[in-house]
Amino acid sequence: MTALSILDLVRVTDRTDARIAIDNARDLAAHAEGWGYRRFWVAEHHNMAGIASAATAIVIAHVAAGSSTIRVGAGGIMLPNHAPLIVAEQFGTLARLYPGRIDLGLGRAPGTDQPTVRALRRPIGADSFPQDVLELQSYFSAEAAERQVQAVPAAGTEVPLWILGSSTYGAQLAAEFGLPYAFASHFAPDLLLPALQIYRSRFKPSAQLDRPHAMIGVNIIAAESDAEARRLATTQQMSFADLFRGARNLSRAPIDDIDSYWSPRERAQAMNMLQRSIVGGPETVRRGIDQLVAESGADELMIVSDIYDHAQRLRSYELIASVASQAERDDVEQAAA
After folding, report:
1. 266-315 pLDDT, tens per residue?
2. Total domains, the chain
3. Can you say whether the dihedral through the CA atoms of 61, 181, 112, 220 is positive or negative?
4. pLDDT per residue as tens digits for the range 147-161
5. pLDDT below 70 — which residues of the chain?
6. Domain residues for 232?
7. Distance (Å, rounded) from C-alpha 252 to C-alpha 307?
8. Is residue 224 part of a domain?
9. Residue 175 in contact with residue 204, Cβ under 8 Å?
């Protein structure tokens, strides 16, 4: 069975604030644990009023404290924004607090706009991402306890690293380092299949991973009917249109007619970025998941259900988990027949 996981955007809506968004993320993780999701990730985004996970490690700590078994992590930390030592200290601390439950996904993008990049003091010029990944990984090893410079208390925690990507670069790096790979097809789907082919064909086993493990991001909006799911999806569609306009608005309630909101050009841009999305009632969602897994061979799906109302977002994830469980039961029955 393809494992299911969650990428939560920790959305601030026009009727909530950052505290409510962070508490909602914690509540979703607690529910997801009971529904059988494997992991729950949040991402580093800066200068975005509608996303409350900029201090990613702190949000992870809050989420992990409200659950007991689900893996919690970053999807991801934008490593060039930070010294590897600092990231290792933060995630080593998380690993001590929540042993065996912390993941660390790593990306290269800034996660923000150019003025904020300058405010982050992000280095400009040579790409040191591969070297930074190896340095970061070394701080988590047992041998790190013997070194002059240590990321206390990270030594010996062996926090698993993931490489994130939306191009073939990350696929090559994950394969070379023998790390699991997560592709961001929930917003950049064009290179999904080429990236997966490169990753699998070039993979080199490592101490962390003996065979390729590919996870793909996918937007899934589930509701009781196709029509209701399409309406709920307009919240995310408006967010994409806003980004094209340079506006970073808070998440807003769904609307009945999305074509009254965006221009034909914005629609074309958004639908290209969202082309892998699965939106519908239970049967539509099941078909969509089956087709995506059959085409990609994904080991795991990282699901984004960007829905305005928290209760409806919970219901979406519950329906998705139910659909997946039923599909697994059907497969078992079919195999036994």
Report:
1. 999 999 999 999 999 999 999 999 999 999 999 999 999 999 999 999 99
2. 1
3. negative
4. 999 999 999 999 999
5. 124-126
6. 220-297+307-337
7. 9
8. yes
9. yes
Q: How many residues does the chain have?
A: 337
User: Looking up tokens 């047992």, which residue turns up?
Assistant: 142
Q: Which pair of structure tokens corresponds to residue 315?
A: 């219901």
Contacts of 153 (CB under 8 A, 6+ apart): 89, 92, 93, 96
Q: For residue 220, report the phi and psi dihedrals to the nearest 5 degrees.
A: -130, 120
Burial (Cβ within 10 Å: 0-12, 13-18, ≥19) of residue 153: middle
Indicate whether 135 belongs to any domain: no
Q: Rg of the chain's alpha carbons, rounded to an integer?
A: 20
CA 241 to chain centre: 21
The predicted pLDDT at position 126 comes to 55
Asked if residues 57 and 86 have their Cβ atoms less than 8 Å apart, the reply is no
**66 within 8 A of 30, measured Cβ to Cβ:** yes
Q: Which residues pair with 5 in a beta bridge?
A: 302
**Does 59 map to a domain?**
no
How far is 79 from 101, CA to CA, in rounded Å?
20
pLDDT of the residue at 125? 58
Look up tokens 């950049």; give the residue.
Answer: 188
Can you give the three-state secondary structure of 237-291, one letter per residue? HHHHHHHHCCCCCCECCCCCCHHHCCCHHHHHHHHHHCCCCEEECHHHHHHHHHH
Q: Is position 225 within any domain?
A: yes
Residue whose pair of structure tokens reads 């962070």 in the numeric block: 22
Q: H or E stretch including 108?
A: none
CA separation for the pair 158, 144 (Å, rounded): 10
In contact, 28 and 64? CB cutoff 8 Å? no
For residue 251 the two structure tokens come to 């998440």
Q: What is the pLDDT of residue 165?
A: 96
**CA distances (Å), origin 247, targets 110, 117, 242:** 18, 18, 5
CA distance 2 to 332: 14
